Amino acid sequence: MFSKNETLVIEAIFELRAWCSKHLPIENSLIAYDLLLLLSIHNYSNSHITVKQLFASLPYSYTAVRGHYQRYVNDGWIEHYPDIKDKRIKYVRPTEKFVEMINLYTGAAKKILMINELDSSN
Fold first, then answer.
1. pTM for the full model?
2. Model confidence pLDDT, tens digit, residues 62-107
3. Helix (H, G, I), strand (E, B) or coil at 93
4. Residue 32: Cβ-neighbour burial (10 angstroms; 0-12, 13-18, 19+)
5. Which terminus, N or C, of the chain has the lesser number of Cβ atoms within 10 Å?
6. Is residue 22 domain-resident?
């Protein structure tokens, strides 16, 4: 049996998952979700990531990632930009549309996961 704390945490996780399904372009895919999270991490750390590095950073096959990646490009969630010194290198970054949605997501996550009155005796 779960304690009161565990039940509250599980309910919060379920609520956050429902928010993600409703608002994020993940189509209930962990591959798409991981792709969004990885791009978010690189965006907020102000680091560059090449398309090749992005694909290699995820524990999925190239084919599995490619479909979601291409959909994000086509739907305006991410964009490419060239390296200043070497035009053969293609970087990827989130668009403003992406950043706005991830900001909403982090706000929702903070609100949903704030479980203030946990019973410390459990």
1. 0.83
2. 999 999 999 999 999 999 999 999 989 999 999 999 999 999 999 9
3. strand
4. buried
5. N
6. yes
